DNA sequence: CCACAAGTTGACGTTAACGTAAACGTAATT
DNA sequence: AATTACGTTTACGTTAACGTCAACTTGTGG
């Protein structure tokens, strides 16, 4: 057995692969990189995205669906990583996390309210259909 | 009793009042009007906003907090009003409402997922604080 | 009457989040 | 060698959602 045994080869992706999987353009991925949201490694000049990059992209896109800006998503992503190691930094981070959670809770209430409104609107439509007969 | 008795005088608002109440600029209110989202009446040249305008503004802003574009909010607002009166229009509207509801349900799931993630992140922070002691 | 506040309509500036195009390198296929 | 299919960087264009003037009119108190 001359070859070494890599226990767990991390999956990596080319820009085109990620782009297609998540239905974004390659331009978008490069743009996210410019903004510091993704840090693919390189083979020569070609970008190679790690599983971590993929996850972060997922988070960015989820953020977008929530109406967050890229900067906001960036903040959240930083919250997931253990960035600071001393107590003060961690306390600051906890604060930031709680802030974001409050904001999202508020958003959730707006969302639920809107859903209720839409349900009532639909109900009224159905009713008015009945009366037209 | 010479004076007539108005049973229910609808409240009306000046641009400044609405702006302050909702913490937007007057420029914003005029902008929404340009886009057809608000239709204040006029006394001379001065805009006078009705209670209905106020409600619509509320909906627009709630939409914004959800990350909706103005156009999307406009759509939703139209859904609340009974715009079309014949069966076909109503059926079309019901479809649109259901579409929007599906979209928002999806968004709600993203939101709940993110909230869970943040909760775990916070938990990890607290843990690492314990270990630092 | 006159200042001053608050209203109005343009018209141009700004930021975010990409799109689009030019001009080029590289690797495999024909 | 030439075409095709990717990749790269650099740079300018675009849309949404306002901000920021400038230049005006209108209403009110001193």
Could you give a quick summary of the protein structure above?
The first copy, chain A, is mainly α and 133 residues long.
Strand and helix layout:
The structure is a homodimer of 133-residue chains.
Chain A: E1 12-13, H1 15-22, H2 26-34, E2 41-43, E3 46-50, H3 51-65, H4 70-80, H5 87-132
Helix pairs in contact in A: 3-4
Chain A binds a DNA duplex (30 and 30 nucleotides) through α2.
Poorly predicted spans of chain A: none
Assigned CATH architecture of the largest domain in chain A: Orthogonal Bundle
| Tally of DSSP β-strands of chain A | 3
Q: Biggest interface, and residues per chain?
A: A-B, 42 and 42 residues
Q: What percent of residues of chain A adopt helix (DSSP H or I)?
A: 55-70%
User: What is the CATH class of the largest domain in chain A?
Assistant: Mainly Alpha
Oligomer class: homodimer
Strand residues, percent of chain A: 5-15%
Mean pLDDT of chain A: 90
Structural class of chain A: mainly alpha
What letter string, H or E per element, gives the SSE order of chain A? EHHEEHHH
CATH topology of the largest domain in chain A: Multidrug-efflux Transporter Regulator, Chain: A, Domain 2
Distance between the termini of chain A: 80 Å
The number of domains of chain A is: 2
- Largest beta-sheet characterization of chain A: 3 strands, antiparallel
């Amino acid at each position: 057995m001359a070859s070494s045994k890599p226990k767990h080869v991390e999956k990596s992706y080319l820009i085109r692969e990620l782009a297609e999987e998540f239905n974004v353009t390659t331009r978008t991925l490069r743009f996210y990189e410019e903004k510091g949201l993704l840090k693919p490694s390189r083979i020569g000049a070609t970008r190679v995205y790690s599983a971590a990059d993929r996850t972060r992209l997922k988070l960015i896109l989820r953020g977008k669906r929530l109406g967050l800006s890229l900067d906001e998503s960036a903040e959240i992503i930083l919250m997931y990583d253990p960035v600071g190691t001393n107590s003060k930094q961690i306390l600051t981070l906890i604060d930031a996390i709680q802030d974001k959670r409050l904001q999202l809770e508020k958003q959730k209430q707006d969302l639920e309210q809107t859903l209720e409104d839409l349900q009532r609107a639909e109900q009224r439509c159905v009713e008015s259909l009945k009366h037209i007969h």
